[in-house]
Amino acid sequence: MHVRDSLFQALNKSDTSINYLLQDIQQYTTTFNQINNSLSEGLDTVDESEQLPAVTKRIAKITALANTHKSSTLRYLFVLRDNLDHLQDQLQGWQDDLDDVNTKLVQHQHDLLKFKSDALLANAIPSDTAVRDAFFDSRAALGQLWRSTDSVNRKDLFRINLIQNKVATAFNNILDESDQIDSKIKKFAARAFSGEYGFILEKNDQYSHLDSALRGTIKLNTIQVSFFFKNETTVHLIALGFLVLIVSWILYNRLNTVKHVENKEIITDHARFVYKNPLVSALLLVTTITPYFYDHPPVFILESAFLITTVLVLILVRSYFPLSLFHFLLQLFFLTIIYSLSNLLIQITNFDRYLILTLSVASIFFAAWFFVRLKKEPQGHLKYTKLTLYFFMAMQLLSLILNITGRFSLSKIVGITAVFNLWLTMSLYFIIRIIIQTLFLQLHSKRAQHSLISYVDYSILQSKLRNILSLFAGLLWIFFLLQNLNIDDLVHDSLIDFLTLHRSIGDSTFTLGGFVLFFIVIWASSMLSKLISYFYDISAQHSTDLTAAKKKNRASTLLIRIAVFTVGFLLAVAASGFPLDKLTIIFSAFGVGIGFGLQNVTNNLVSGMILAFEKPIQIGDIIEVDGKSGTVMEIGIRSSKLGTSDGSEVIIPNADLISHHVENWTLNNSNRRIQILISAAYGSDIEKVKKLLTDMLTKRNDIMKTPEPSVFVNNITDKSVDFRLLFWAADLSTSNTLRSLVLSDIYAAFNKEGIVIPAPK
Questions:
Q1: Cβ–Cβ under 8 Å, residues 674 and 727
Q2: Nearest-angstrom CA–CA distance, 565 and 533
Q3: Cβ neighbours of residue 411 under 8 Å, at least 6 residues apart?
Q4: Fewest CB atoms less than 10 Å from the CB: which of 73, 305, 323, 483?
């Protein structure tokens, strides 16, 4: 019986095993229902399915265009490659999305196959007939659910794989065509340096088809512009919002400043562009910045925005600069229009060569004429006008020489770069001034509201912001110079390779890019700590109620600066990839340096930490140390700044504030006792004088009642009776004024009562 029961349990399982199987059925049912719910939402492949045929046609069209024109310009090849890069980014995004969907479907299939391979559930036969029927019914329903779910999942998986194959094919076609265009660009570069033409008088029949070049140019730009306006709706709305924001910001600050500022000369001196030409200033900002919201915009759109920018620059130059500069830029504007049209051509032609030659000669002539006028009338021109003219004429002269010697493509690139970068110099100058002047209006419009921003020192802000914007503008100018010369990719790749190359010193490896990133983060954290400290200080300096608690908060800015700088240092180390275990070597070397030559620096740093935590002095306290007295203006990491009554600022090392004797007149309060010595002639009524002085002190509202003022007989000589007056001023800053007023009252009272003040005979 024992053997029989064991065999029966092994074959048919126990009731406990049946319960586990029923739980498995429930778990499978839940999983299949979840898969069905996920599949019922459909596949998120609408964009890929609808747009893929159009993308495939565009790839085929670009391939045809690349192979049609044998004498393509470099600009044309770059336009085709930019379009391929745009399509490549789009297909890469589709591939990532399809991979996510495919991964989810594969996981579904894995869960479905897990049920199919569950032999224990498929072969189980319960011994109890009541349980057996219920178990068979549940398993049959689960099987039906599995078959329907598996069928739908397999169909969706097949569809996804089919779309993935089409996208992958299109992506590979883009890569192949990009390689071919890159090869053509390399061949073009080699041909450009060797020369497409002979000497200037020699013609090449290969480049005589101007009509086909014009038709191809119009067709290509029409397609690009049409696609641009149809498929960039979101970016169009962002650009429109940016336009409304900039125009509203400038107009609002201008109107608000005009309303609250009575002295209009201050506005015209510091914000003449924005005040007199607010709409032109706003549009100049927008037309310069907005084109770069787009990813690979058409050349026609970029040049249209650029020409609008030049018109706005001309308006401002006409209003505020000498007419000679305006006339030169106006002449250059017409040349720029022709340069822009030439830049759109997709084929090299003989006509274009002679056109560029004429433009180079005209540019050099106009620049030389303006240079002569500039030497005669240098007043009113920009600081680096001569340097800019030198660069412009040198570039145009180089373009002329290249064209004469048959290197037309290089000549065209250099000539267009010279013209475009000169206009870029002017537009960047105005943009920097417009931003600074708008901030000036912003600050002055807030002064009437007494907000925190109204207390910002404009002169400091102007100096700092101008330096930062000038640095950014210089880098931007260099970038566009490289881009116009079509060597930006080469310089970018070379710079990245140079910065990311691993170098070794001993066992340590590093990259120059890591060092650059380290110093950038350190600089940013330093600027942030100074900015926080600056706003913290100006908010306290303009506070009318500077209590002890607020002064302690002001002193806490040192801790904030230390915390920000410390976090910045750690982030810089982490971002640069510097091994943290190597820091111990640096700190050890730093410790040796401290032991030999940095004792004073370390002493001051540690003293600064003590001042920050213990707060024996606080910003705003009136102290005296080593014979120097004044108000604490700043507590730094290494030293502190003391403002004296005569307007000078004394820099005191923090170690002196810890180790030397320091008198703090305002540690707990701002009260100060005032002592005055006054004499009456010998023979004066002492009680009368004491009563007169006491009544006079007690009746004054600017003298504290507690402690009450006191009058003492200080000394009696053969010539006078000396009295000592002691009273308290509530505010230390008014003690000198109060002392002067009391002395004046004493003199008037003595004169009225006939009390004689002894004088030397």
A1: yes
A2: 12
A3: 356, 357, 360, 399, 400, 401, 402, 403
A4: 323
Q: Classify residue 485 by its DSSP letter.
A: T
Query: 447 near 258, Cβ under 8 Å?
Result: no
Beta carbons within 8 Å of 163's beta carbon, 6+ residues apart: 45, 48, 49, 52, 98
CA distances from 446 to 251, 281, 454, 485 (A): 15, 21, 5, 45
Interatomic CA distance for residues 407 and 397, integer angstroms:
13
What backbone torsions phi and psi does residue 493 show, to the nearest 5 degrees? Answer: -65, -40
Q: Is 429 in contact with 382 (CB distance < 8 Å)?
A: yes
R_g (Cα) of the chain, nearest Å: 42
Instruction: Using alpha carbons, select from 182, 146, 119, 143 the residue that is nearest to residue 32.
Output: 146
| Average pLDDT of the chain, as a whole number | 79
The pLDDT of residue 14:
44
Taking Cα atoms as reference points, which of 485, 192, 186 lies closest to residue 348?
A: 192
Cross-strand pairs, 720: 681
710-716, strands of its sheet edge to edge: 672-681, 720-729, 710-716
Please write the tens of the pLDDT for every residue from 590-621: 566 555 555 666 677 677 777 766 677 777 77
Contact 290, 239 (CB under 8 A): yes
Alpha-carbon distance of 708 to 688, in angstroms, equals: 19
Describe the chain by its helix, strand, coil percentages, rounded to 5. 75, 10, 20
In eight-state DSSP terms, residue 652 is: E
What long-range pairs does 52-55 form, CB within 8 A, spacing at least 24? 52/94, 52/163, 52/166, 52/167, 52/170, 55/87, 55/90, 55/91, 55/170
Residues in the chain: 761
Residues 6+ apart with CB under 8 A from 8: 127
| Angle 730-734-737 from CA coordinates, rounded to 5° | 130
What's the pLDDT tens digit per position in 356-412? 999 999 999 999 999 999 888 888 888 888 899 999 999 999 999 988 888 888 888
* Cβ count near 72 (within 10 Å): 24
Strands of the sheet containing 639-643, edge to edge, are 649-653, 639-643, 628-635, 622-625, 662-664
| Cβ-proximal residues to 651 (8 Å cutoff; 6+ apart), any chain | 639, 640, 641, 642
- Please state the pTM of the whole predicted model: 0.66
Helices then strands, counting H and E runs in the chain, come out as: 26, 10
Q: Are 480 and 428 in contact (CB under 8 A)?
A: no
On whether the CB atoms of residues 352 and 407 are closer than 8 A, the answer is: no
